């Protein structure tokens, strides 16, 4: 399976699910985005690492990093390896001091929090970006309606209107809405 390198594009609140956030991963060599819904604690852990804030005492992800370092285990990369029933699965690809490679199952949010702490690359298999990614198309020269209708029930919209709404959501960086529209479009395939 082909791995696609990703980086963190944004961390935003999830308007439809209180106490949840969305981390937006962007394709390094392309125009797709992968929105991943995460919990508040994980969002905080990622934000703290991105901003290089040093808490007084180690947070859980800092503790795990410290343990790996003491055991002389390197986090080589994070791979978002599967998507089942709307849930992303990830693994930590680690290497021991003797070169032995380990793959450790992880929640995607925890894997991202660790990747930021270790400055390790984040990857996803191509099929995941095909299934759950949102493509930012080149809209140059496209004429779009200014008032794209918005609703909670995307299933009532024709496919053409959904695509317009998706373009508008992406343009406005409303990734939560874009993910909902993407899911509805995927249902229609």
Written account of the structure:
The protein is of the alpha+beta class. The chain has two domains: 130 residues, Bifunctional nuclease domain (Roll), CATH 3.10.690.10; 45 residues, no CATH class. It is built from six helices and eight strands; from the N terminus they run E-E-E-H-H-E-E-E-H-E-H-E-H-H. An eight-stranded mixed β-sheet has the order 6-5-4-7-1-2-3-8. A hairpin with a 4-residue loop joins strand 2 and strand 3. Helix 2 packs across helix 3 and helix 5 runs antiparallel to helix 6. The protein is globular and about 55 Å long. The relative contact order is 0.17.
What is the share of helical residues? 25-40%
Number of strands: 8
Q: Tell me about the biggest sheet?
A: 8 strands, mixed
CATH homologous superfamily caption of the largest domain: Bifunctional nuclease domain
As a whole number of angstroms, the C-alpha radius of gyration is: 18 Å
Mean pLDDT: 84
Q: Any idea of the CATH class of the largest domain?
A: Alpha Beta
Structural class: alpha+beta
Beta-strand portion reads 25-35%
């Amino acid at each position: 399976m082909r791995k696609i390198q990703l980086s963190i594009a944004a961390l935003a609140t999830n308007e439809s699910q209180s106490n949840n956030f969305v981390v937006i991963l962007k394709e390094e060599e392309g125009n797709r985005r992968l929105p991943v819904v995460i919990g508040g604690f994980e969002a905080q852990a990622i934000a703290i690492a991105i901003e290089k804030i040093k808490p007084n005492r180690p947070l859980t992800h800092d503790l795990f990093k410290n343990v790996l370092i003491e055991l002389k285990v390197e986090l080589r990369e994070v791979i978002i390896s599967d998507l089942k029933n709307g849930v992303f699965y990830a693994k930590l690809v680690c290497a021991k001091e003797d070169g032995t490679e380990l793959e450790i199952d992880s929640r995607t949010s925890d894997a991202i929090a660790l990747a930021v702490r270790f400055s390790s690359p984040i990857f996803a298999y191509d099929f995941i970006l095909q299934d759950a990614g949102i493509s930012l198309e080149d809209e140059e020269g496209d004429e779009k309606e200014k008032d794209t209708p918005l609703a909670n029930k995307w299933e009532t919209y024709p496919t053409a209107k959904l695509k317009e709404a998706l373009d508008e959501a992406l343009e406005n960086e409303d990734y939560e809405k874009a993910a909902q529209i993407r899911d509805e479009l995927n249902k229609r395939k």
